[in-house]
Amino acid sequence: RLYVFSIDGIEFKQINMLESTKESLKLEAMKRIVGLIARGKNASELFPAVVKNVASKNIELKKLVYVYLVRYAEEQQDLALLSISTFQRALKDPNQLIRASALRVLSSIRVPIIVPIMMLAIKEAATDLSPYVRKTAAHAIQKLYSLDADQKEQLIEVIEKLLKDKSTLVAGSVVMAFEEVCPDRIDLIHKNYRKLCNLLVDVEEWGQVVIISMLTRYARTQFISPWKEDGIFDENSEQAFYESDEEKLGTPQSKPYIMDPDHRLLLRNTKPLLQSRNTAVVMSVAQLYWHLAPKQEVGVITKSLVRLLRSHREVQYIVLQNIATMSIQQKGIFEPFMKSFYVRSTDPTHIKTLKLEILTNLANEANISTILREFQTYVKSQDKAFAAATIQAIGRCATNITDVTDTCLNGLVLLLSNRDETVVAESVVVIKKLLQTQPTQHSEIIKHMAKLFDNITVPMARASILWLIGEYCERVPKIAPDVLRKMAKTFTVEEDIVKLQTVNLAAKLYLTNSKQTKLLTQYILNLGKYDQSYDIRDRTRFIRQLIVPNEKSGALSKYARRILLASKPAPMLESTFKDRDRFQLGTLSHTINSKATGYLELSDWPTAAPDSSVRNVEVMEPVKKEISWTFGAASECHEWVPSMGKTKPLKSDDKFYSDSGEEEGAGEEGTGSSSEDSSSSSSSSSSNEESDSESEDKNSKHSEETDSSQSDKSSGHSDKKKADKKKRLQLKKKAKKAAPKERYQMHRPPTHHPLTQELWNLRTFTPKMAYTHTGKKKNRKQMVALFLCVQVSSPVFVPMSSHELLHRMTGKGLAAQYHFPRQPCIYGNKMVSVQLTLTNSSDHTLEDISIGEKTSSGQNIHRFSSIERLEPGASVTVSMGIDFNDSTQAANFQLCTKEDQFSVSIQPVVGELFLPVTMTEQDFRKEQGKLQGMNETSATITMAPENTSNQALSKKMVSVANMGVVPTGEDSLYRFAAKSVSSGDLVLVSVDLTDSSSGRLTINTEKTVIGSMLLRDLKTALAQP
């Protein structure tokens, strides 16, 4: 049925489909309603009809309903409360978008009565498996705090938990909640400081702005100032190259400044963000360097700030304001880019004025002639306000640089004959200020200005000339009385500011030349006595009592000459941005030059360095476990299943994957029951208590004897079970013989392992190590099933291309190249294997080649063993491991020889951060279904003709990224699977060809940043032949 409703006075004929039984009609209705909201129309009248559909099972419809409710829940609170039970149920929805939307709507209902419900929902969402839901929980914290500030302590607990989150999607939002709720709780940041620094590059852009702002305040409280004037900036604390012992003894000692590694970590990790496309991020990094970096390093921000001047005028205005503040203190860093601040004819007035301010700040003896020529052009501008600002700038240059004072004065005097009154008036004002610096040398200029007095009509200019003549009336004794005579004729029609200066001129002439001006002074004082302005009347009465002695005047008249003719200091022409540095750059307070609501001031640097150990995070050392291999019989395909710890005797098949059986075994082991399960457990327990020096054969024999003795005691076993047990024991013996007989520790591989070379050459499989956790007891069946469906495989394609690490010229004969062999790293399961080829291109032997101690913070690097000698022309290949933390951030370290140190960096390609995995098509679809919504990235691709064949497409895909090929039964669909090396998260890639040259590329992974980067690389590679 049809109905007509009015929105903002406009009649809309809408089909009432919200009450229809067809989901498609409801969906169409919601699309139209959301479209009205997007156009700014008020659709609040439809709230009752919309809220009925909140319990719909259609995901798309539910999303649109939640979009509507977020917009109007605060206005229609009573109706929204009726559906609060539905929102609570939606918090348990399998779809992460629905859970997040329900929490967003719940937090939008601004009713104090539901505060406990909101608090409970936020706590549950903070522990949600989806990072998107946790991000929404962080947003809800701010809403709840504004609704009820009494919940602050509980919210701080949630914030503390979310700050430990390792997801880049959550980091920015939780820091924003921290800034809103408890910005003074710096102690919450200590343990998370390094993690936030390392995650910064991968956080979304607005989150980067918030985190950088918070870390700026944090750093000002935790690190000492790098700007100490009496200190020596010496980060390596090494003696200068040319400094002799005698000079060192003769000079006073000053303590060298050594930068805190965490301070350097922040500066190093924010520097790449200067290349961000988001202007707010660039501005945030610029202010961080300005407030935290040593003075000699601030120059790195200049190019990025100048680049922002190509943006919109709103961006230019903010950037130029900050540059104007910086250029006052450090004009040298912007001087090479002076031409970037030249005014364009298309610039608006406020942009022109700021550029003029910067050019004036940059002026010095070397470039003043260029700047003054530029100013001469600006004075002729049709923009009167800009021309007046240019004249003020010329006056500032004349004040700051004494060599051009006369030149500027002569130029300003020429402007007095300009036809534009605004230019003339501003010139008079500036000349007046300049003449105060050298009044004795410029009496001719004062006479020239007096002659032009009749032609000048701007009140401020006329008042300035009158002040000059009155101040220096003794140097122009013939002109001053005549000017006063002319002013007496027009006194009643002048502006107030001109009248005040006329009264002052009359008083000064009365004291210096009373014979000629006594009657004129009395006449002007009588006119002022009856003026309409009370300011003029008060000034006139005061002057009369001061200069004309009588019985009532008192003792003040004796000091009239000292009061009116006192020498006055010359005014200082200063920049309007001089005092803005008291505000943090890039803030609203800096823009408006006033403290805004919510502004957090930067604290002063601490005098003594606080304890840096508060930022140390305790890392639990993994317990040494012996690797054993168990033959898994869970599936039809027999796989080797690795497990940490010694092998327990296997129980019956029905108990192998049973949680209850495992728990019963553990419980009965503690009570000492004589059942079969307890016997097996005790056998394993006694076997585990034996010393590590015993051989595996003895352990196997002991287990066999124990099992057989227990088996004899049990009377209810059949012959079939005995045969099965004997078979399992034989398989177990074989597995133990194949197992490595040394113990591993995580990230510490053995130096001489008997199976190391064998494992490297064994390309048919690479077993994944399962680590035993002491926390929650995991379902053993699920763990084995996951292991069986996702297996790390050998690389399908290994690129042989190498990348230059160190050029032979830079390395003084030592050349280094690196490449990724795409093999599991033997130094740690979270590390990427990297092979270095070192070549001695010099004519002498290089000794002690190694990696220095100074490496990237936050990245675990396993160094190769030191190379004692490398003869001329010789090459050597070594391997190393790097934990990139699933990020493309470069690993920086020092390549050292006996005599030199060279700073190098390895930049990983996103495709090298994976290990290929094999899985069935069914498992691929199952895992892909779990990674929908925010975890899915897709794009339409156009492929080169050479890449359309099956073999060519697969080769191109695996050459870009280290992925495994998943078999598929469809001709036009290709699937690839991998896992990230550091976190082990799955990366699923599928290519669906729609025709011969185009298709759909889809990537599913929880690492959304890696997914988007991989999508870009694959899309580019497929488009190239």
From TrEMBL:
<dbReference type="GO" id="GO:0030123">
    <property type="term" value="C:AP-3 adaptor complex"/>
</dbReference>
<feature type="compositionally biased region" description="Basic residues">
    <location>
        <begin position="723"/>
        <end position="738"/>
    </location>
</feature>
<feature type="domain" description="AP-3 complex subunit beta C-terminal">
    <location>
        <begin position="754"/>
        <end position="889"/>
    </location>
</feature>
<dbReference type="InterPro" id="IPR016024">
    <property type="entry name" value="ARM-type_fold"/>
</dbReference>
<dbReference type="InterPro" id="IPR026740">
    <property type="entry name" value="AP3_beta"/>
</dbReference>
<dbReference type="InterPro" id="IPR056314">
    <property type="entry name" value="AP3B1/2_C"/>
</dbReference>
<feature type="region of interest" description="Disordered">
    <location>
        <begin position="643"/>
        <end position="753"/>
    </location>
</feature>
<comment type="function">
    <text>Subunit of non-clathrin- and clathrin-associated adaptor protein complex 3 (AP-3) that plays a role in protein sorting in the late-Golgi/trans-Golgi network (TGN) and/or endosomes. The AP complexes mediate both the recruitment of clathrin to membranes and the recognition of sorting signals within the cytosolic tails of transmembrane cargo molecules. AP-3 appears to be involved in the sorting of a subset of transmembrane proteins targeted to lysosomes and lysosome-related organelles.</text>
</comment>
<feature type="compositionally biased region" description="Basic and acidic residues">
    <location>
        <begin position="696"/>
        <end position="705"/>
    </location>
</feature>
<dbReference type="GO" id="GO:0030131">
    <property type="term" value="C:clathrin adaptor complex"/>
</dbReference>
<dbReference type="InterPro" id="IPR029390">
    <property type="entry name" value="AP3B_C"/>
</dbReference>
<comment type="similarity">
    <text>Belongs to the adaptor complexes large subunit family.</text>
</comment>
<dbReference type="GO" id="GO:0006886">
    <property type="term" value="P:intracellular protein transport"/>
</dbReference>
<keyword id="KW-0333">Golgi apparatus</keyword>
<dbReference type="InterPro" id="IPR015151">
    <property type="entry name" value="B-adaptin_app_sub_C"/>
</dbReference>
<dbReference type="Pfam" id="PF24080">
    <property type="entry name" value="AP3B1_C_2"/>
</dbReference>
<dbReference type="GO" id="GO:0005794">
    <property type="term" value="C:Golgi apparatus"/>
</dbReference>
<keyword id="KW-0653">Protein transport</keyword>
<dbReference type="InterPro" id="IPR002553">
    <property type="entry name" value="Clathrin/coatomer_adapt-like_N"/>
</dbReference>
<feature type="domain" description="Beta-adaptin appendage C-terminal subdomain">
    <location>
        <begin position="913"/>
        <end position="1023"/>
    </location>
</feature>
<keyword id="KW-0813">Transport</keyword>
<dbReference type="InterPro" id="IPR011989">
    <property type="entry name" value="ARM-like"/>
</dbReference>
<dbReference type="Pfam" id="PF14796">
    <property type="entry name" value="AP3B1_C"/>
</dbReference>
<dbReference type="GO" id="GO:0016192">
    <property type="term" value="P:vesicle-mediated transport"/>
</dbReference>
<feature type="compositionally biased region" description="Low complexity">
    <location>
        <begin position="671"/>
        <end position="688"/>
    </location>
</feature>
<dbReference type="GO" id="GO:0030665">
    <property type="term" value="C:clathrin-coated vesicle membrane"/>
</dbReference>
<keyword id="KW-0597">Phosphoprotein</keyword>
<protein>
    <recommendedName>
        <fullName>AP-3 complex subunit beta</fullName>
    </recommendedName>
</protein>
<keyword id="KW-0472">Membrane</keyword>
<dbReference type="Pfam" id="PF01602">
    <property type="entry name" value="Adaptin_N"/>
</dbReference>
<dbReference type="InterPro" id="IPR026739">
    <property type="entry name" value="AP_beta"/>
</dbReference>
<keyword id="KW-0968">Cytoplasmic vesicle</keyword>
